[in-house]
Design goal:
It is a single chain. β2, α3 and β3 form a beta-alpha-beta unit. The chain has a single domain, classed as Vaccinia Virus protein VP39 (Rossmann fold, 3-Layer(aba) Sandwich), CATH 3.40.50.150. The longest helix has 14 residues. The protein starts with 46 loop residues before the first helix and ends in a 6-residue tail after the last strand. It has five helices and nine strands; from the N terminus they run αβαβαββαβαββββ. It is an alpha/beta fold. It is 25% helix and 23% strand. It holds the Pfam family PCMT. This is Precorrin-6Y C5,15-methyltransferase (Decarboxylating) subunit CbiT. Keywords: Cobalamin biosynthesis, Methyltransferase, S-adenosyl-L-methionine, Transferase.
Length: 217
Amino acid sequence: RDWLGSPPKEVPRLHVLALELSGPAGRGLVAGLPDDAFEHDGQLTKRDLRASALARLAPSPGQHLWDVGAGAGSVGVEWMRAHPSCTATAVEADAGRAERIGRNADRLGVPGLRVVAGRAPDALEGLAPPDAVFVGGGATRPGVLDACLEALGPGGRLVVHGVTLETERLLADAYRRHGGELIRIAVETAAPIGAFTGWSPARTVTQWSLATSPGGA
């Protein structure tokens, strides 16, 4: 019932409450928040690449993600935004970036994201088992990829990004040994060239993804 002034003293147990919100629209829950939604120092999985990774990580209710070499924490943040019961642990070796991840998580509505300031693979020991793992940095560090693969249970998903030739060789070898999907993603953005407009390319990213079978890897 509509009223003017103070609300009624008694409200029926069964009732409908309608809210009319003012101001700009909120951010949706579909993967791919704008890059400027995150505080970062350039170490950020960019929007289009992030959306591609999350499509393969497939956030599902109640599942847990490891975001390894998390940078700004964008993948872990978006994983948790997919459903209130999704959880994530962001592992980042740089202490300043680790603090920044916490601020991004708070500002974007997922303060429960756990941040571990440490370097993989050692920092992965003792963490809650993951249902999915994203490696955004540090894949060439000895033991990182093996530790992530070993941690995945049946039906797990792994996505690894690389921009260097060294990481690309590592991922090509992993694809040869384990299968999965190996793709290269090149994104170009329209930008001014004098009085005209042209394409400004970002670094090409190699992406390896793997889904373990329901019976194990």
